Amino acid sequence: MSNTLSSRAQKKVEKMLCLRCGEYGHFADACTAILCLYCEKTSHESKNCPLLSMPKLVAITYGVSRNELIFHEIQASPEVTFKHDSGKVGKISVDGGTLTSQEIVNELAWILPGNHQWDLQPMEGGAFKALFPSKADLARMTKIIKVLVPRTNMFLIFEEWSAADLDPFSLTEVWVRVHGCCYKERCDYLSLFGVGSLIGKAKEVDMEFTRGHSEVRMKVEVTRVEFIPTTTVDHVYDGEGYGLLFKVEGEKVKDKSDVVIDGDMP
Prior knowledge:
Strand order of the largest sheet: 4-5-3-7-6
Order of helices and strands: HEEEHEEHEEEHHEHEEE
Number of strands: 12
Strand content: 15-25%
Distance between the termini: 92 Å
Helix content: 10-25%
Shape: elongated
Structural class: alpha+beta
Number of helices: 6
């Protein structure tokens, strides 16, 4: 009988997920893995991390024609490693007093009965991060939100936890027409992305349309469409200066008399 219990216990241990190193078989408080400071891998010491000798990324600036359109992009490194959110990690805090991690574990064993091995990781403000038995259990507790601790005036507060702790803003994708590019520039596919960078980040240039017309058609990601310039934007291409006029598709094109057009344009 004891061998059977030992076997079951071993299976439970093998299913334990360490929130520190990401490996199974133990909890974070018992984790002895030495993680690299830079990539959080266990395969090498920090001083030997390959990241130290790799080229470092720099920010790329877009939307330089107006302050309201400017944003700076830092691309994600292909070498980045981070702990993915399993959807089962929750935040547990105490309202109305303080409880030790073991006292909270005792309450959790009563609230969510079963064989789950609770591993509470301290967070700022006295809260704890914990891996719940399932996504359904976490969803149920976050819907309940507050649970009274028996024989006290304290409550356990349950919230979802995610590594995405900031609210990102989104760029808006628009098709625009650009008047004022000379014929040579309209044929210069790569340089047209530079034209797009004046208002945002160019994603696509419709060369079939552009080669057959006196204007450029491109898809651009911008911060705020309403700030795309309605007046000419001076730029220099191949040593010559030209004024550009950007128009979002669907808007009425205004008078282009203030736009410099190359005289050799077909």
